Structure formats: C-alpha cells, structure tokens
C-alpha cells in the first residue's frame, strides 16, 4: 500500500461497493442534491457521538456545542436538541443559537474582538459573555448601563500552562485569548466596583484544541480547576459556572489514534467531585465542536478529468481547496498529510491505483489527495473526503477564483 494510504476506516456502510449515507447510496444522494460538490452531515452519527460522551462523562456536566465548528443551520438545530447549550463567537452565531430555541441562559459568547453591537445584542438577550480583557469588561459595563440591563459575565483566563500536544494552542504564553492568569485578581477587583451592572458568574479556560492524548487533556482540566479554585476567593461572588473548554481531538491522518474518552470521562468524575468540594455547587461546562460533528460529515466531489503526467495519475475534480481548505493543507502553511479519501461509488474496488486528486483552481495548492491509493476511478466517479463535518465550508475561501459554492445537506 502507498505510504499515503489511510488506516482510518470508512464509518459509513457499503453496499455493492457503493457508500451508503443516511440510507441512500452516494450516487443517488448526489442525484438528489442536484450537483457536486456538496457536504453531507449525518444526524445519526452526531447523535451517536453525543451518546458516547453522555455515557462516559458525569451526568451533571453540561455539554455545549461550539457553533464555530460548523454553523450550517440545519445541523446546529439538530445538535442543539442533543446538548445542553451552545457557544457562539459572532452576531450571526448568536442569531443561529437563539433560533434553535436554546434559552439565553445556556448560550455563552466568546472571542477576543467582540464589537459593541455584538455586546449589546448579547446583553439584551441575556447571554453569558466570556470577557477576554479588562477593557472588554469596562465596555460591557458601559453598554449595560446604557441599556439598563445587568450583563452576565464570566472571565476567560489565559492560563500559565498550555495544553500539551494540542493541534492549536490557545493558552500559555502571550495570547490574544483571555486575560493572563496573573492579571485576573485585578480584573476581579475591578468587577467588584462595577457589580451594579455586571453579574459575575464564573470562569472559562480553553487552553487548546485537537488533542488526541487523554493524559494531556486530564492534566489540563485538573490544572484549570486548580487555577479557578485559587481565584475563587478573590471573586466578587460565588463561582456559579466553570467552563473548562474542550480540546477533544479527532483522527484525520495515518498514525492518528482515537482519543480515549472513557479514560477522560473517568477522570472527569473525579474532577467534578473535587470541584464541588472546593467551590460548592456550580455548573461545569464541557465545550466541544469538532469532536461532536467532524466524523459525521463528508465532502463529495466528482471527477471531471483523468490524466497521466509523466507517469503519474491525476484525477481533476469539480471541488477543491475553496470548499475544503483543511484537506488541502491550509494554503501550504502546514506539513500536508492526506485526509481519509476514497472513491464513493467504488469503495473497495478490486483494481487499485495510486493517484493524486486535485481541484479546478489555477494553483498547485489545490490538492485534495497526494499520491494516495484508491480504487481505480474515471470521469464521473465520486471522490469522498471523510472526517469533514467540522471546519469545512465555513472555514474555506469560498470566493477564491469565483468558483461555484458547495451545497450542504443533512441526512439521516
């Protein structure tokens, strides 16, 4: 097998060598959608992922979905029915969250560059704001005064530690995210002077994301609790909410292993007991995005040309990096590895070949699979990229070269 081939298996059933998605063969699904490329997200697979978490984490931990992972409205509505709350990062996401019927009490708003208009929207709706700087708390106070509405506030902490081996670090060292741990006590004192219009509720820590190591996540969660417990005495009121972030990763590449969530869940039971012992009764939030939806989604594109260049096979497809930036390697800014890719209507295929799959854009960066073994394919066949339910279309340069956009569908 070619070194770029995948050990990550296809999570969707196969009948007569054709992938079946939501009970529909992929070829028929493409006909129903009416075009390629498109993203398809499976309700049942999202539900199964949530159920897995429910089985292993403490029952009294609140599970929140971070909409930034995938803001497709139909998917957001589906996930909202399965979780306890939603986390938003923009005005549009606030609207999406409220449109699901989720109560404002169960929505939190984070992000380092909140606009005044967004803060007004969140305060008016009664959403919890995770403040990311001392200046932001002062802006929230001023806007709350103007509106005559007391604002719900938690402080996002930039801890002194980071999440080891995280795919993306958002804590430890100088960061735009959160208030430095050593500065929090001063901000808490400032909140005490402004408690006429600011209702302090607790803390958020989100040190990193896309982590597949259970020990690293457990260590970070325990370190986060220690930080919050130390700061609680300086708080202007009881700590009612402790958002310990997420960071749970999913496997994308050869060699990646599934996160041992059973082990993490066992540790979270001990964490919950300790938190209640040192902080009293409070709401603990586990905030996840990618982990809930990534494996439930796939990207489907059609081969429009097959060519051989100096002995190498190229499949040119009608989609590409403008729809799925992550699979292409993020504009060449990372060491590129292949996502799990297969021919959806020839999944196993007795005849195999090593091929490179590229999109229609006029750039060599438009690369979806590099020298990867797949079933022998031809013009008209469907190329499917798995693990595509998070940070797909909304995280891609859809306007690049003015190509048509992809559609999104929710299936069973």
Automatic annotation (TrEMBL):
Boundaries of every Orn/DAP/Arg decarboxylase 2 N-terminal domain copy: 44-294
Residues recorded as bearing N6-(pyridoxal phosphate)lysine in the entry: 68
Highest taxon listed in the record's lineage: Bacteria
Single Gene Ontology MF annotation: diaminopimelate decarboxylase activity
Organism (species): Phyllobacterium salinisoli
Active site (catalytic residues): 362 (proton donor)
Protein name: Pyridoxal-dependent decarboxylase, exosortase A system-associated
One GO process term, biological-process aspect: polyamine biosynthetic process
Cofactor(s) this protein requires: pyridoxal 5'-phosphate
Keywords associated with the record: Pyridoxal phosphate
